[in-house]
Specification:
Blueprint lengths: L1 H17 L28 H7 L2 H13 L8 H14 L3 H17 L6 H13 L3 H13 L8 H12 L2 H14 L5 H13 L3 H10 L6 H13 L3 H13 L6 H10 L6 H13 L6 H14 L2 H10 L5 H13 L3 H13 L6 H14 L2 H13 L6 H13 L3 H10 L5 H13 L3 H14 L5 H13 L3 H14 L4 H13 L3 H10 L5 H13 L3 H13 L6 H13 L3 H13 L7 H12 L3 H10 L5 H13 L3 H13 L6 H12 L4 H13 L7 H13 L3 H9 L7 H13 L3 H14 L4 H13 L3 H13 L8 E6 L2 E6 L8 H19 L14 H9 L2 H12 L8 E5 L5 H13 L4 E4 L4 E5 L2 E2 L6
Parallel strand pairs: 3-4
Antiparallel strand pairs: 1-2, 1-3, 4-5, 5-6
Helix pairs in contact: 1-3, 2-3, 2-4, 3-4, 4-5, 5-6, 6-7, 6-8, 7-8, 8-9, 8-10, 9-10, 10-11, 10-12, 11-12, 12-13, 12-14, 13-14, 14-16, 15-16, 16-17, 16-18, 17-18, 18-19, 18-20, 19-20, 20-21, 20-22, 21-22, 22-23, 22-24, 23-24, 24-25, 24-26, 25-26, 26-27, 26-28, 27-28, 28-29, 28-30, ...
């Protein structure tokens, strides 16, 4: 048995070494200072004396050395063991005491010449207790070889060892031996067999043994079965068995209640859970901390944190699990403020947060965006040495990502001693979502070089980063990698559709969408969003129709996308259908859904409905206020927009950049010049918001529309930042409206220098030259545009009739009722010429062509075709307004044409052009001829 003592000496030495730091520098050749006087013999203190000093590490070192040199006369194993065990007890060093006790058993066992079955059982049991199942089974093999006959008490130990090793094969062999020896009828042996099978995940085998037990009065077997079913996700069977146990009039113990409560895995088991709670109250186990903790955890899973907290506060004794169960329960149920409050209560009560508590409170701080609290927790984790834990590190990385603090995120990541796939993925996701796309790609390359397997979340984030950097080729490369590795699961397929849509590659997106075999709501939403993003609203509406036919229920995100499509087409009927769907389904109007509804009704020309939706929302956020202000602005109700903006401020909601942009836009379209100047100053000085280029462009547009062109130009020259193409575009548009050739020329030159890839800029410059009859310059601009591969967006208008949106291009003949449309348009034109004195104003045709052709070009404008179709398809004298949408600014002649129709045909026309809404009624337009 010398080997066993060597092993013990090694393990004790290991304990000693792990308890002390090894010096960094070791002098291999130290200088020896030899004393001139004779040295006295060194007296080595006994283990008993060392133990009296209270040093556990010194005691273990001395014990280890004693094993190596057992010839010391003063050494007594019994005295040594008893002294060390007594010290372990005083220091509450349970694990170390258990080690010593096991070695004591070995010493006694090895010194016993005549070993009985009791001796063998005791030693086998000691190994199992000490967590050494292999040694236990090895000793069991020696026992069998020695010819010792097993008794009933041998089986529980060796069966437990098999369970610890998940060795079902050997366990079944021992089960067979128990049957052969006739011990299976013994209750504790049968219980041990059941326990072994459950530990080996063989529930069927365990149940067969359990069902064959003739005596089941002992709760141990019941506990094993209930716990096994519960831990393997078979909650219904676990609770059914618990019910059978109650019917058998067996009294559940702590383990029974804990296992049954754990089986109540979600709120669908609330009735059964409360029934068990009642049983606990009737028993004597309510004060048991384990049962109370299980009750807290159960109610947390049910989302009943009030009941969980009540149980917690009623407990006389609480352990760390009690505190952590409540804290994690608050976090899991989204009660982040309550979690932070409870954490502070926990600290005030003197309970030191452990690893689990730190992870929970870090998650709560992240969700709240409470950076100060999060950094405080981080400091605590560093102080307690918890930051080196992998889970804590991952949680901190995620927290800083949610704080948009990529610098701190990288610091945590770099200091982590160990990193797993979650660490890398969380950091890459954090950078991708916070716009650090290059850093995300850099980390991705490191992952690739490390040979770490890529997961779905990481690849999705890299696709997001490639999208942010507009790396189309990289997206295709990653797409190829996904196909080669067979990683095309639904999440990745949806992301690929989304990314191709963002790139404007609609065909690729559509092909990928078609390849998805089982499309979920995210798949459909990605395709709808792709169409909306690429101005294919009709296709988006058709995709939504197919989605409903496929039986896929739309969620709030898909509804927001489809509302945007309806809004872009001014498809009021479609928009109302979606609103009706929301009401029928009882979907709560909140967040982006409400602002999308307000925007949809506004862009469909029904400002009153927008206000109705706005007024019915109790808790209005900044986005909703901004949407309503913008609605007033696009309909030319500048003062109403300003009143609402000021009411928003009175409600204590601070405007952001977007809110100021929409109120400036409203001022611009209502000739509110002084108010516009005031809001820009207010933005800078009262709210300390640095204006964007869009704000400057808006003020230039405002000044330009009011014919304050010199002031607008001086404002542009005096800007604190270099004006962008958008600012010069606003000035150029104003110069064209007011025929200012000099400033227009300056603005045109600047615009084409700064943004040579935008076809709209060339059209604007070309129109400026055409208005001045500078046809050579017009030709040069158009040639330059052609060389750059740019094309002008053709004029397009659409109208919703019935349940369909009809689209018309200028001088379009593609509509099935084209002949009727042009016939109707001729009748309208003749009546307006005869009764209203209408004469086409060809100055708005900016082409070098004959006058007759210019007239025909005006007559063929897309909005006129849409109006004519609307008048054909609705009865004469109908009160229904004609709702027209146009992608470009309405020309002056068509504007006059619409006013005359509203007067002589008594048809209201609501038209949305590229700039704003026009409400034509009784010969007057709501814009006051200012657009």
């Amino acid at each position: 048995m010398r080997l066993r003592y060597s092993v013990m000496a090694a393990s004790i030495s290991s304990f000693y070494l792990n308890s002390h730091q090894i010096p960094k520098k070791i002098h291999l050749n130290p200088t020896l200072n030899i004393s001139k006087f004779p040295q006295k013999p060194i007296e080595i203190p006994s283990i008993g004396e060392i133990c009296k000093r209270g040093s556990l590490s010194e005691a273990f070192q001395s014990l280890s050395e004693s094993f190596k040199n057992q010839s010391r006369t003063q050494f007594s194993f019994d005295d040594a063991y008893s002294s060390v065990l007594e010290l372990c007890g005083s220091k509450k060093a349970f694990w170390e005491g258990q080690q010593v006790h096991a070695h004591m058993a070995e010493k006694v066992f090895d010194g016993t010449p005549h070993r009985t079955v009791f001796t063998w059982n005791a030693m086998i049991g000691a190994y199992v207790t000490n967590g050494e199942p292999l040694s236990s089974l090895e000793l069991y093999r020696e026992m069998r070889v020695s010819g010792i006959r097993l008794d009933a008490f041998t089986f529980p130990c060796i069966l437990k060892a098999c369970g610890m090793l998940k060795d079902r094969s050997r366990g079944a062999e021992i089960h067979g031996l128990a049957i052969k020896e006739g011990h299976i009828s013994v209750v504790f042996v049968a219980n041990s067999v059941v326990g072994m099978y459950t530990k080996c995940k063989d529930l069927n085998g365990a149940r067969q043994v359990f069902d064959r037990m003739t005596k089941r009065e002992d709760v141990v077997a019941w506990n094993s079965m209930i716990s096994a079913y519960s831990s393997n996700g078979e909650s219904i069977e676990a609770l059914r068995l618990f019910g059978e146990m109650q019917k058998a009039n067996l009294s559940p113990n702590t383990y029974t209640f804990v296992a049954a409560l754990q089986a109540c895995e979600d709120s669908s088991f609330i009735k059964q859970g409360m029934s068990i709670h009642v049983a606990v109250l009737k028993s004597c186990h309510y004060i048991d901390v384990f049962v109370a903790n299980a009750l807290i955890a159960m109610y947390a899973r049910f989302g009943e944190m009030g009941k969980a907290a009540n149980i917690f506060y009623s407990m006389d004794d609480r352990d760390a699990i009690s505190w952590n169960s409540v804290l994690s329960g608050f976090v899991q149920n989204g009660l982040y403020h309550e979690a932070v409050q409870f954490y502070h209560y926990m600290r005030d009560a003197g309970q030191k947060p452990d690893l689990v508590a730190v992870i929970s409170i870090v998650a709560a701080s992240a969700r709240l965006g409470n950076k100060l609290n999060g950094m405080e927790i981080h400091a605590y984790a560093i102080k307690k040495g918890l930051d080196s834990n992998l889970q804590v590190g991952n949680s901190l990385v995620d927290m800083y990502a949610k704080f948009c603090s990529t610098k701190h995120m990288d610091l945590v990541f770099d200091k982590m001693p160990d990193k797993d796939i979650v660490s890398w993925t969380t950091t890459i996701v954090g950078h991708a979502q916070n716009g650090s796309h290059s850093r995300a790609l850099e980390l991705f390359r490191e992952v690739h070089l490390e040979g770490i397997d890529l997961d779905v979340m990481m690849i999705s984030s890299i696709l997001l980063a490639c999208n942010g950097l507009k790396l189309t080729s990289s997206v295709k490369e990653i797409h190829g990698y996904i196909i080669r590795k067979g990683l095309s699961d639904l999440v990745l397929q949806n992301v690929i559709v989304d990314v191709y849509g963002e790139f404007g590659n609609v065909d690729y997106a559509a092909k990928m969408f078609e390849l998805i075999e089982f499309k979920d709501v995210v798949s459909w939403t990605s395709m709808i969003s792709c169409y909306v993003h690429n101005a294919l609203a009709n296709e988006a509406l058709e995709c939504f129709r197919l989605m409903k036919e496929a039986g896929v229920e739309p969620d709030s995100i898909s509804l927001v996308s489809i509302l945007s499509a309806a809004a872009s087409l001014s498809a009021l009927r479609k928009g109302k259908e979606i609103h009706g769907f929301l009401i029928r389904k009882g979907i709560v109007l909140e967040g982006s859904l409400t602002s999308s509804l307000v925007d949809m009704y506004a862009r469909c020309g029904t400002l009153e409905k927008s206000r109705d939706v706005f007024d019915c929302i109790r808790k209005k956020d900044l986005i909703l206020w901004t949407s309503m202000i913008n609605a007033y602005g696009m309909h030319g109700c500048g003062m109403a927009a300003i009143d609402l903006f000021e009411r928003m401020e009175d409600e204590g909601i601070a405007p952001d950049h977007i809110a100021f942009l929409v109120v400036l836009y409203a001022c611009s379209h209502s000739r509110l010049t002084n108010e516009g100047r005031r809001f820009l100053e207010k933005m800078k000085h009262e709210y300390q918001l640095k204006p964007w280029q869009e704000h400057y462009a808006c003020l230039v547009d405002l000044l330009g529309r009011a014919n304050h062109l010199d002031e607008a130009y001086q404002f542009v020259k005096g800007m604190e930042v270099e004006p962008t193409a958008e600012v010069w575009c606003a000035l150029l548009g104003a110069c064209q409206n007011h025929s200012n050739k000099e400033l227009g020329g300056i603005a045109a030159q600047k615009l084409l220098q700064m943004d040579p890839e935008n076809p709209g800029n060339y059209v604007l410059v070309s129109n400026l030259y055409a208005a001045e009859r500078r046809w050579k310059d017009v030709e040069q601009v158009r040639m330059r545009m052609k060389v750059n591969g740019l094309k002008k967006n053709p004029g397009c208008s659409w109208i919703e009739v019935g349940n369909k949106v009809h689209t018309f291009l200028s001088r379009d003949n593609s509509h099935p009722q084209s002949y009727e449309i042009y016939s109707k348009l001729s009748q309208i034109t003749e009546k307006l010429s005869r009764e209203g004195g209408y004469v086409a104003q060809t100055k708005f045709v900016l082409h070098n062509t004959k006058e007759e052709e210019k007239v025909q070009m005006i007559y063929g404008h897309s909005e006129r075709l849409a109006i004519a179709y609307g008048m054909i398809t609705t009865p004469e004298g109908a009160s229904t307004s004609l709702r027209i949408t146009k992608n470009l600014r309405i020309c002056g002649d068509c504007h006059e044409f619409c006013k005359l129709i509203s007067k002589f045909f008594r048809r209201d026309i609501i038209m949305r052009d590229a700039n704003r809404f026009h409400h034509f009624n009784g010969g007057v337009c709501s814009c006051g001829d200012f657009w």
